[in-house]
From TrEMBL, chain A:
GO molecular function: iron-sulfur cluster binding; metal ion binding
Keyword DNA damage: no
Annotated transmembrane regions: none
Protein name as catalogued: Ferredoxin
UniProt keyword annotations, A-Z: Electron transport, Iron, Iron-sulfur, Metal-binding, Transport
Annotated InterPro entries: Fe-S_cluster_ET
Automatic annotation (TrEMBL), chain B:
GO MF term list: oxidoreductase activity, acting on NAD(P)H
Organism domain of life: Bacteria
Position of the signal peptide: none
Region (Disordered) residue spans: 407-427
Reductase C-terminal domain sequence ranges: 334-404
InterPro entries per the UniProt record, alphabetical: FAD-oxidoreductase/Apoptosis, FAD/NAD-bd_sf, FAD/NAD-binding_dom, FAD/NAD-linked_Rdtase_dimer_sf, Reductase_C
Cofactor(s) required for function per UniProt: FAD
Composition-biased stretches (Pro residues): 415-427
Pfam families: Pyr_redox_2, Reductase_C
Keyword terms of this UniProt record: FAD, Flavoprotein, Oxidoreductase
Cellular component, GO, one term: cytoplasm
Descriptive protein name: Ferredoxin reductase
Amino acid sequence: MRVVVDLNRCQAYAQCCYAAPDRFVLQGDEILVYDPAPPDRDRAAVERAVQACPVRAIRVEHGDAPAAAGISA
Amino acid sequence: MRNETIVVAGASLAGLRGAEALRQRGFAGRLILVGDEPYLPYDRPPLSKHVLTGEIAPGATTLPGVRGLDAEWRLGTPVSGLDRAGRALLLADGGRLGFDRLLIATGARARPWPNADEARLSGIHTLRGRDDAAALASGLAARPARVLILGAGFIGCEAASSIRALGLPVTVVDPGPAPLARTLGHVVGSFVAGRMQAAGVDYRPGTRVTHLEGDGAGRVRRARLAGGGAIDADLVVVALGAVRNTDWLAGTGLAANAGGVSCDGACRVLDAAGRPEAAIFAAGDVARWPHPLYGGRPVALEHWGNAVAQGAHAARAMLDGPEAAGAYAELPAFWSSQFGLNIKSLGLTEGADAVAIAQGNPRTGRFLAVYGRAGRTLAAVSVNAGRWLPAYEAPIRAAAPFPPITGGADQPALKPVPPGLPAPRAA
Ligand SMILES: Cc1cc2nc3c(=O)[nH]c(=O)nc-3n(C[C@H](O)[C@H](O)[C@H](O)COP(=O)(O)OP(=O)(O)OC[C@H]3O[C@@H](n4cnc5c(N)ncnc54)[C@H](O)[C@@H]3O)c2cc1C
Ligand code: SF4
């Protein structure tokens, strides 16, 4: 799974931290630290975080990234 | 457009978001992303922050959006040139890649230490990509006796914060009067300096390193300072800003140099005479364009949000035409986190003649500063006070009278002072 948060948009409401506490943490007053590559078993929790974010700052993509086969180097 | 080929040069944030927007807007032709790094597009902001502290692995930040794109990836493939008349990219491996339209998204690279012999010493790092972050992290894992950071801009300060969090001794050297002064000015920069010092950073403003010296084994050992004196360090991070990746455009007649490739408001690249190329677009850190909010002054940003928005704008201009896309006027915005501070900015401070603390108070560690010029609002910067920032978007967009009144109950009496920004550089 790949996660990115638009930290311009994030307002440090911490709803994601309640929904998926192992993957989203607030440091200090308002620095959001998140796991950009959570394991698949956390899919439901991360999805809850996406839905919970009041400013829709979290984007997630499930499944594996295109494998080397799709990449002609 | 089904039979058309669109090629994206540079497979990172702007290139990926541009490619995605092309597909979302219905482009059904061939889409090829060419990148010199051997990686799918990944996110860079964590590299100077939680990657250096070890909280995130250097290889973990691959961006969402790579999976459903239906694109061909040519990774590990540097672009070496452009055949403008023949509409083809020249690849370093000798290949040619024809296109109907091209999106230039080759971004920027870290400015190296200017003395090439000295820069070759081992233990000297720059920080732009995933490999740089991995190399720096492994250098830090060897517990250097002192880390020296050259440059107190955003990347230098973020690296200093992360490396202090590892418990390593850190010295930051910068010729300016305060950290981040070029962007935030002296007033806000001085507040950040206090936090740096409280975190145990040996911060040396007004100090210039002239030489880096190594030992017999070719490892960096010492930095010599202008006016005498030296700092012993066995790991050096060179954080002297960025150079745009436009070398491969040399000789093409396009308006490109180390400061970026010039575009019009529809992201169309200009030739040396200022005429837009109909088929060649640019977005992200590499692009320089006239920003309508700042009097049409050409600006080139190094902001994550700009790469995302400008990539999408270029895609729209490619498919729907420049008139439909309109002039790209995204309000510049960025964030930075360091020393426990979340710094967020809207607008551009360049040219400001006054700054006022409009909300909060630096003494409490939460405040918002507004920047103005000739009585008009230019920009706002929040420090651990991000929720106050959105209220300033409208006054900045409207260039409202400075200082703007937002009606915030906690707005103190405004006392504008000079912001302590450096004199604008000659263009
Ligand atoms: C360490 C770090 C921390 C940052 N932190 C923040 C932050 O906190 N907030 C914020 O707003 N912004 C931050 N940024 C800035 C943000 O990451 C950039 O604005 C963004 O990456 C720009 O995206 P881009 O796609 O335009 O360029 P880049 O990300 O630079 O991508 C350009 C790509 O093109 C490739 N390329 C270059 N030349 C060639 C060639 N000739 N052939 C093929 N490929 C080529 C490059 O290798 C690279 O992969 C940070 C940047 C760095 C480096
Ligand atoms: S829920 Fe959204 S706004 Fe709140 S901290 Fe998480 S990402 Fe930020």
